Amino acid sequence: MDAPAMPDLLLEIFSEEIPARMQRRAAEDLKKLVTDALVERGFLYEGAQGFATPRRLALTIAGLPVKGQDVREERKGPRVGSPDGAIQGFLKGAGLASIDQARIESDPKKGEFYVAVIEKPGRATQDVLAEILPGIVKNFPWPKSMRWGAASKEPGSLRWVRPLHSIVCTFGPETEDPEVVRFDVDGIASGDVTKGHRFLAPGEIRVKRFDDYAPALERAKVVLDADRRKDMILHDAKDLAFAQGLELVEDEGLLEEVAGLVEWPVVLMGSFDEAFLDIPPEVIRTTIRANQKCFVLRDPATGKLANRFLLTSNLIATDGGKTIVAGNERVVRARLSDAKFFWETDQRVKLEDRLEKLKSIVFHEKLGTQYQRVERIAALAKELAPIVGADPELAQRAARLAKADLVTEMVGEFPELQGLMGRYYATLQGEHASVAAAIEEHYKPLGPSDRVPTDPVSVAVALADKIDTLVGFWAIDEKPTGSKDPYALRRAALGVVRLVLDNQLRLPISEPLIYASAMHQFVSYLRARSSELQDIENIAQKMRSDQLDEVATKFAGGTKAIELEDAREFFGDKELGNDLLSFFADRLKVYLRDQGARHDLIDAVFALESQDDLLMIVRRVEALGRFLDTEDGRNLLAGYRRAANILRIEEKKDGRVYSEAPDLQIVNDQGQIEEKALAVVLDGAKREAAAAVEAEDFEGAMRALSRLRQPVDAFFDKVTVNADDAGLRANRLRLLNSIREATRTVADFSRIEG
Amino acid sequence: MTSEPAHMNPARSFQGLILTLQRYWAEQGCVILQPYDMEMGAGTFHPATTLRALGPKPWRAAYVQPSRRPKDGRYGENPNRLQHYYQFQVILKPNPPNLQELYLGSLKAIGIDTALHDIRFVEDDWESPTLGAWGLGWECWCDGMEVSQFTYFQQVAGFECSPVAGELTYGLERLAMYLQGVESIYDLNFNGLDGDRKVTYAQVFQQAEQEYSRHNFEYADTEMLFRHFRDAEAACRKYLADGEPKDGANDQRHLMALPAYDQCIKASHMFNLLDARGVISVTERQSYILRVRELAKACGAAWLKTEGGGVAA
């Protein structure tokens, strides 16, 4: 005999259209909230699945028990013959009607006393569901929720993402007709009736359980599973494209959204006038995507956009979709006309002539306008240019134009095209190709997987943009905390790290940090001293680095001239620079770890003082990793540890450190052959390693250290460190210290694990 | 359905569209109001929406409201943009449970067949910073085109709506362009007639668009507008103060919420004109919006102390 079938739960919450972006999360939340509440009450289940369409959230939970576990509890009461008050209290607490219902037990200490046996039968799952579900509906974690209808007159009325119309809730085993789990949420009573597609099958549908619910919906032109809707759209879209010899430009974000806008997807193809293909393809795609939520297509032979688009309707139209396509084509035409208009009018104003408008755009209340920001970035880009191998004039030019497209019509309409439009307009007005590229690329890299620019001009502006942002927000104490990073400063710092590493830049990072902070401080210094906004505007205009000294002379010192260097000294904030530097170090560590580098090796290198050259840090970590993979490396590490251990123990015992250089006279006069050999090799290896590090030849430094391996091994083999002669012992300890010192030329070996 | 003369068909007559919507909503128990006699940026500003959305009293109204958006002027040259256009506004308080169906019924009434057209409710949360108002709802799409805004008001003038009102706004020109199948607003047939008797939208409004664009962008007297803004703001405050119930008086109703609110509407429009003239900087902009919002909030508070706002007479 099979075990009796375990009952299943079906829950559907039917409402007006749920925003597409909220559906997936809501289906997950519903599943989690209900299953958690059940498990918390001791009800386990076999499986659960949540679903969402534009008009419904649904949940099925399979394999729930019919009822909860019975609970049996014994409660000790008062002694037999206790005063009536005590007896009555006991009866009341145990829920007994009379003392006859209690058992009498005895033990040697207490004598005879009453015991109540309280049996709590497990509650019916259905009752528990009816109890927990209203609360889950009432407190559902929608990102935004609303009140509606006559009920909203009362305070505390039900909130849902949009008006909630009905609830289906059934419970029962497969073998029988399930029952409706009866509950009521603010006047909405649960039942077993839902509705199909708004237009294709608007009638009521009575459902029993999930097994007939999903097919019933399907017949009523509702595909419950969002992933299946996505598959249908993608499949049909590819088919339609293929039939025209075209290729779908896939877009996962759009697909997800579109699947949340339909209960029954019907993909249709429309077209637009070829003349619109003069507009940059990114603009066409963005326009059609953002406004119409349509896919674009390309010619697989040329890779160029085709004058077609795919829309996903929610209707099997009686005319086969002709009206729908015609309507969408009209809108696409109007949108592309707008885009074409923006594209053409934007070209009439040169980018540099747009800068004036940036003065009226506040970047951040405490960090001034976009105009001031651009001036700072331009100055910094010019400073950075020689370091990254860029022409300083080009870098400055690119930086000055980098934000100008923010005030174009096109970017006003489609902010996501910032940078790209600047590049197009710059190219059209005849800017140097590197300048045009930098305008687009200076925002990059936008994340750990985004492409890193390589053109030196782009690199200079990208670095300047990010460093200015970081220093600015550091200066006004808006650093990221925990999970909060509203200005994406971690991303900016990672961007700097990747720009430096991918381009193999030798950039001691503290220099530009101090310079950038000088400019920020300078502005706030002047702001504090000048009540007139006008002055600050003037100063901001003069913030180009070549004029910093002049401005400093004029405003800061009065009669006393302040040289540029002094101005930096005066306004630059070293502490801020150091704090930011450790932020970079953290980002670098995270980055290297993600790249698979050993975190202990990273720590071993970072433990050395004042490491601010990101590229050298990475080179060192890499060389160290390779060295430790060799037998010489492993043995030297073992030797190092032995030396360090002995030193630690002896230094502790003696209450002193042995950091002086070993006395070579003692080695020569009293030492064994092995320690003489070690002393000689040590001296040479240390100097050689230091020289190699100086020359940034980390492989060479490791090679130099590897020469230590044999004499170190021999030393530990043959020489007793704790000699009877105190002088000899002390000198041997100093020798061990020299091993430690020598390894410190490349890394702090004490941080290395394994 | 009674059969209409051809020139009243919404598919060929702009005024036919308006009249059809009015009739449809009249049948749903709406009072059909005429446009408010003041310049405003949207039908929502009409006291029949802004103020009537506040307080417990049921209310159903529908009306056309000319909407003035000085910045959207294009000298009569852009086929899709106007500085003066018509909104058809419906407000139902509390919203009936079948408001979506009623809305779809209105589309049917103007000839949009849901067996042929793809109607969609796409998330669009509405917020008016100047009115201190917000609500949740959708843009209603017909074949990919936004034809209406559908909003459940949650807050107006800084006050919770209890009960919630449902608001529908139809952009009439855009809807008519779709129904008539024309590519330019100016090609709309206004009166639905043919030949010599036909009047187009261009004949009615193109000159106005040209003249007002000139006015809005080039000639509007900014000094006067700034003054009018200040005057309207001061007048609003004054009427609110003068209309306040006196301490200890039996009648605790506010006596001049509506005249005060007129001044709020006026201030808002002055701001829109100044904004179009480009004389308000970004930082100032925020503070002007805030000043209008403060007026709107104070007017809302006053309205809630009137009979219309729910206070017993």
TrEMBL record, chain B:
<dbReference type="GO" id="GO:0004820">
    <property type="term" value="F:glycine-tRNA ligase activity"/>
</dbReference>
<dbReference type="InterPro" id="IPR045864">
    <property type="entry name" value="aa-tRNA-synth_II/BPL/LPL"/>
</dbReference>
<keyword id="KW-0067">ATP-binding</keyword>
<keyword id="KW-0030">Aminoacyl-tRNA synthetase</keyword>
<dbReference type="Pfam" id="PF02091">
    <property type="entry name" value="tRNA-synt_2e"/>
</dbReference>
<dbReference type="GO" id="GO:0005524">
    <property type="term" value="F:ATP binding"/>
</dbReference>
<keyword id="KW-0547">Nucleotide-binding</keyword>
<keyword id="KW-0436">Ligase</keyword>
<protein>
    <recommendedName>
        <fullName>Glycine--tRNA ligase alpha subunit</fullName>
        <ecNumber>6.1.1.14</ecNumber>
    </recommendedName>
</protein>
<dbReference type="GO" id="GO:0005829">
    <property type="term" value="C:cytosol"/>
</dbReference>
<comment type="similarity">
    <text>Belongs to the class-II aminoacyl-tRNA synthetase family.</text>
</comment>
<comment type="subunit">
    <text>Tetramer of two alpha and two beta subunits.</text>
</comment>
<dbReference type="InterPro" id="IPR006194">
    <property type="entry name" value="Gly-tRNA-synth_heterodimer"/>
</dbReference>
<dbReference type="GO" id="GO:0006426">
    <property type="term" value="P:glycyl-tRNA aminoacylation"/>
</dbReference>
<keyword id="KW-0963">Cytoplasm</keyword>
<dbReference type="InterPro" id="IPR002310">
    <property type="entry name" value="Gly-tRNA_ligase_asu"/>
</dbReference>
<keyword id="KW-0648">Protein biosynthesis</keyword>
